[in-house]
Amino acid sequence: MSVASLELDLEVFSGPFDLLLTLVLREEVDLLEVPLAEIVVAYLDQLESRGELDLEVATEFLVLIAALLELKSRLMLPRDDDELPDFEPGEAAEELLARMLEARRYRRAADHLAARLAAEEGVRYRAAPLPPELRRARLADAGPVYDARRLGAALGGLLRVPPRPDLAHVTIPRVSTAARVAHLRALLRRGATTFDEAVRGADRVTVAVTLFALLELYKQGEATWTQPEPLGEITIAPAGRRAVARAVAS
Amino acid sequence: MSELARIVEALLFLSPDPVGVAELAEAAACEADEIAAALEELDRAYAPGERGLQLKRVAGGVALATDPVAEEAARRLLAKPRTPPLTPAQAETLAIVAYLQPVSRPEITRIRGVAADSATATLEERGLVEQAGRSQFGAVLYRTTDRFLTLFGLDSLDALPSVSEWDPSPEEEAELRERLLRAGEQRLGESASA
Amino acid sequence: MSELARIVEALLFLSPDPVGVAELAEAAACEADEIAAALEELDRAYAPGERGLQLKRVAGGVALATDPVAEEAARRLLAKPRTPPLTPAQAETLAIVAYLQPVSRPEITRIRGVAADSATATLEERGLVEQAGRSQFGAVLYRTTDRFLTLFGLDSLDALPSVSEWDPSPEEEAELRERLLRAGEQRLGESASA
Fold it and tell me: Residue A205 in 3-state DSSP?
């Protein structure tokens, strides 16, 4: 089977592949309207139904379809006229032909290389580690390979202190968890309270740190908290013996 | 055998890669023409059919290698083939790299009409090609290695036949042209007359 | 030389380890006494002083090895010291040791602002620095080696280039060590407060 006799049934064209090729090159069929993917699928179908792969034919098909793809993509991309003039039908055919000739040239070079490799069959080179006495170099065999200036430059780099970055524009809020724990304990000494109460008038960072403080108290067993519904009010209550003991002591 | 020839023989035995004459001269602390004379002496000692080893000029240097007479036994002793043969895709990719180097993978793909990624990767893994920087468009460029020259028994890339030798003949070109155009036109004629 | 002797020669050439007579016989598909005869033939070819290689009987079999005549040349050709390029961390550490020696690892760390353990270990392994006793606080002290001088092409430590060329504030009076430590601490202080 040759590529030429690949039967196609496309919307814009029905017939053998080589006829399509000719019509495209003579611009009787607009390449832009030819779905190349369908040609590939048709080719694969045919391959499958035949159950064998002729490399020669397969390569020819690939070269042809690749050339068509490139021609089509060039047609699809608008270009400046002086950069790349439109193909005349004859030129397109020449381009396709040149492509196939080039592929053929390197296929032959490949045959030559494969033959050369086969001719060297049986010529083996030695791949053994060096004897131990040669593995460790003697100082006498060494020459200068490093530049001492590199050391001076490295030391100069270490003497340099980068200028202190100006942090004046950054305000660093200072809220400590300890302070918020103390604040919560003070509230809880008077009984149950709410989270809103605990963070009344506070900024976002303080609200966040207060939440950490509350987690800390919960972990210590000093407080429990409940929230009946999502986004609802959080009630905080003193809990456990330690809290009671603390309340009694105070 | 002269002492210098003996030294050169030992150096070639130890060195994992082909060694150039200049390197041999530096190691043996002598002149290049003395090395050349020693190599001639070794050439006589290793005349074809004399020994189990031969003196090869490959990859711009000299190397000792086995004579194919021992291949069958070597395969049994070492339990591995010398180097696996190339698949057609690998051979084509290698040919394109050998003749056009440095060459990028997209360029190889353009010539072959089919992606060369796996073939290039295998050739690189087998040490036959290596990366050689990047093209102005950022694609990795490939070139052949000294190992390629050694395994293919080539002294240098110049030892490859000129690429024009592989050009299809005018007859072939004409035939291809025929197949591209006339075959289709013929069908066109047929369908018109049908 | 007989074909079998040639084959045995090639097998010994290829094998990195000594090969037993039985193994040779199996590989060459022949009898052990034929191998013995081939080895005798090779013994004559490799008679002492004849070649750059010798046929040796060692534990476990027969091996080809180089004749001591080539030892000096082989050393020059193949025993190249391993001198990979220095990383910036290694260069800094080496510079500190070179200019301040003897210097302890904690001191190197203070000057660089980052731990120098891996760089120091690599430099020690490559023979560029070595231990030189302990400081009064028990820390290992380092100094450079003769190998360091050779690889940097220096006659002595006095030949180290003056730092003034790379010094950002050469007018300062303080001693180099003191200034390096101060700079290191300033860098460290910054990264801690940042």
Answer: helix
The answer, for B33 touching chain A at a CB cutoff of 8 Å, is no
ipTM, 2 dp: 0.71
Cα→Cα distances C67→A118, B8, B13, B174, C42, Å: 34, 11, 11, 64, 15
Residues 132-161 of C with CB under 8 A from A: 146-147, 150-154, 159-161
In whole angstroms, how far apart are CA A214 and each of A218, B182, C175? 6, 89, 54
pTM summary value: 0.59
Q: At what angle do helices C105-112 and C117-125 cross, to 10 degrees?
A: 120
Q: Identify the closest residue of chain A to B148 by CA–CA distance.
A: A117
SS3 at position B131: strand
pLDDT in tens, A110-166: 999 999 999 998 899 998 888 877 776 666 666 778 888 989 889 888 888 767 767
Q: Provide the 8-state DSSP code for A201.
A: T
Of the candidates C66, C163, C187, which has its C-beta nearest A152's C-beta?
C163
B48 Cβ neighbours under 8 A, 6+ residues apart: B54, B67
Q: Which of B143, B146, B149 lies closest to B99, judged by CA? A: B143
Which among B49, B50, B28 has a CA at the least distance from the CA of B39? B28
Residue A230 contacts C, CB cutoff 8 Å: no
Q: Are strands A223-226 and B53-58 parallel, antiparallel or unpaired?
A: unpaired
Q: Tokens 């070492």 appear where? A: B78
Name beta bridge partners: B143. Answer: B130
Ramachandran class of C177: left when φ > 0, alpha when ψ lies in -120 to 50, beta otherwise = alpha
Q: In chain A, helix, strand, coil percent, each to 5? A: 60, 5, 35
A69 shares contact with chain B (CB less than 8 Å): no
What is the C-alpha to C-alpha distance for residues A111 and B91, in angstroms, rounded to an integer?
A: 7
Q: What does DSSP say about strands C103-104 and C140-144: parallel, antiparallel, or unpaired?
A: antiparallel
pLDDT digits (tens, 9 = 90+) for B80-93: 767 778 888 899 99
Q: Parallel, antiparallel, or unpaired for β B129-134 and B103-104?
A: unpaired
- Judged by phi (left if over 0) then psi (alpha if -120 to 50, else beta), residue A240 lies in left
